[in-house]
Fold each of these.
Amino acid sequence: MISATPLTKNISIVQQQLLELRQQSVRHKNANLGQLTCLIVIVSVGLITVRIVPANQLKTWSFLWRQGQSHVLLMSLMLIAIMAFAISWWCWFSDLKYRSLEAQFTELHDNHAEMIKASPTLAAIAADYQRQFDLAILLNGIATAVAFAVIAGIGLRLILPA
C-alpha cells in the first residue's frame, strides 16, 4: 500500500484551502457585481421616470403613486426599482460574510509562501484568487460611488427648486 508523503498531504491541504478561498472570492465578486447591477437599474429607472413624469411633480410621492396606478409603464418601473433595491440590499448582506476573506488568504499565504511559490498549481490558484478579490474590491468601490451619487442626486433634487 502506497501512502502519500507528508509533503504531498500538506500540498493537498493547502490546495483545498486555496480553492475554497478562491471560490469565496468569486462569490464576493458576484455579490458586488449584483449590487452594482441593481444600482444601475435603479438609476436607469429614475432617468426613465424623469422623462415620463413632469419634473415639477416628482417631489410628491402621492402624485407619483397616483400616476403609477394609471400609467402601466410607470407602475412597472416603480416595481422594478423596488425589486432592484431589495436585491441590492440582499447582495450587500450576503457580501458581509466575506469581510475576513483577505485576512484568511494572507495568513494562509504567509504560512505556506515557499510551497505556493514552488508549486505552479498553487501559484495559479493564488493568483486567480487575487484577481477575483481585486475585481470584487473594484466593483465594490464603483457600487459605493454610484450609491453616493444617487443619494447626492436625490438630496439635490429635494433641496433645489424645480
Amino acid sequence: MFHTVEELNAWLGQRCRALWSELLHPQYNELTVADVLELERVKMMPMPTAFDGYVERTVRVSSTCLISVARNRYSVPCERVGQWVSSRLCLLGSWSSPMKR
C-alpha cells in the first residue's frame, strides 16, 4: 500500500487531521478536537528554532580501531589509530532514567 515511510507518514497525517473534525474533545464535549486546536492556536507561542543538543568529547582511538563513548564502543577508520577524535553524543527519541536517591 505504501512504498516509503514518508508516504505512510503523509497518509497518517491526513487521516489524523480528518478525524480531528469528527472526534469530540474529551474535556469539552460540545467541541471537536479541531475546534479546540483552533482556539488554542491563538495562544500558542511560535516554535523556536531546532535545538541541536549534544555532548561533545575528545576521545583517543584504540589500537583496535575503537572509541569508547558513554560505556559503548564504536569502530572508526583504522587510519585514526592513536589519534584524538571528537565524538558527539545526542539523544534520539525519548528516554527516561530512574531517579537516584
Amino acid sequence: MDDLKTMWAEVPVADRQDLAPARARLLNGMHGARHGRAGVRREEAGTRHGEAGVRRGRASVRFAVAGGLAAALAVGFVVVQVVADPAPASAQDLLARAARTAAAEPDLNPRADQVVHTVARDRSAIFAAPDASGEPVRMQDEVREAWSPADSSGAFMLRQGDQITLMKLCSESFDRKRRTTYADLASWPTDVASLRERVRQAAAAHPAEPHLRMSYTLQNLIDKSVVRPSLRASLFALISEMEGVTVKPSMTDALGRAGVGVRTAEGTTLIFEPETYRYLGYAEENRNGHVIASHALETVELLDRLPKEKVTFTEPGCIPA
C-alpha cells in the first residue's frame, strides 16, 4: 500500500490531450453505453434537475497515467482519484453553496392569470403535554395539494386527503394587500442590498410578534420563490447575514430524506440536499430541540386554469389571500 501511495504522489496530473487516446479505448470497450436522456420536469423536491449546473463542481477528478499503469490502460482501465468537496465550514458557506444551486435553476415566471399547482407534505408533532414541550408522542403526516391563482384573485382549490375544497379569495382584504403573491415576485430585486430593504419593509407590516416578523417574512418569500429560484438564491445570501445562524449537519425533511440544515436564531431550520445543496424544505423546533413541524414541497407546475376536479366542499364567503 505504501508503494502505491508513493507511486500516486509521483504521478503528474494529465491534461485532456494526454488522456484522449486512453479515453477513446475505454469508451470503445464499454458495453451497454447510456443514451442521452431528454426532458426535465420541474420538481422542487424529490427529482433532480439537469446535471449541468446542479452537479457542476461536485467533485474534482484526476486521471493519472504512468509507469506500470500503461499496461492496464491498454486493456481499457483508467485510474481515477475523486476528491470530494469538504463539508461546509459554516452556515454562511452552506448558504453560499445553496445560493449557487438555486441560481442555476430556471425561473417559471407565472403570469398573473395562471395557476400555481403545488404538491407538498407536512409533518406535525402530537404531544402529550398541552404546551408542546418535551418529546413528541408521534408525528402526523399530511399531503397537501393546492391550486393557487398567481395573483391571489378568484378561486383557490385545496386537496387534503380525500376532500377537495374550493374557496373564493377575497378581492379586497388587508391580508391580501400585505402578503406577497406568486406574481408579485417578478418585481422583487435580486441584488442583496435592494432586497434587504424590500424585505425590511415587508417585515415591518407583518402582524406577528416583532421578534418573529423578519423570520416569517423570509420563510414566506422562500416558499413563494419556488417559481423564481433566482430570487431564492438572493434570499439565502440575505439569511447568511443574520445573527445566530448555525449548521445542523443531520436533518430529515417531511418526505424522510436526509439533509443538512441551517438553523436560524428563531428556531426554523432550512433543509438542503447534502450533495447538491438544493433546497428541500424546512422544520420548526420547540425549545427542547424537538421537531414540531416540517414541510417539504414535492412538485410545482404552472397551469392556465383550475383543473376539473370533483369538489367535495365549497367554503362559504371568502378567505384572505
Amino acid sequence: MGVACALLWLLVHVLRWYGQPLPYVNGHLTDFIAVPLMAQICQVVVQRWIAKDSSYQLPLVYILFIAVYVSVVFEWIMPRYSPRYVGDWLDVAAYFSGGLCYYLTQLKKVVPASR
C-alpha cells in the first residue's frame, strides 16, 4: 500500500506542476493517502533501525497520532499563517479514513487466515 500511495502522490504532484490538476484527486485523495504514506515510512524506519524486526506493525495509537498531528498542523495551524492553506473538515476526515484503511490493511497481514 505504501508504494501505491507514493506513486499516486507523485502522479498528482507532477500533474499539478504541468498545470493539469485532477479536481477531486488533487484535493481529498491526496489527503486520504497522506497518513498511510507517512505511517508506512515510519513503519519501515522502525522495522529496520529501531525494532530490527520485519514483522513489526505500527499500533493503532501511532497511526491515530499521525492523523491528529497532520490535522492540527495542516487544517488548524497553517491556515492561520498562510493563505495557501485552508482548514477543511473533509480533509481531516480523509486523514483519519486513510489512517484507518492503512491500519486495517496492516491488520490483515498479521492475522493468519483461518482454515
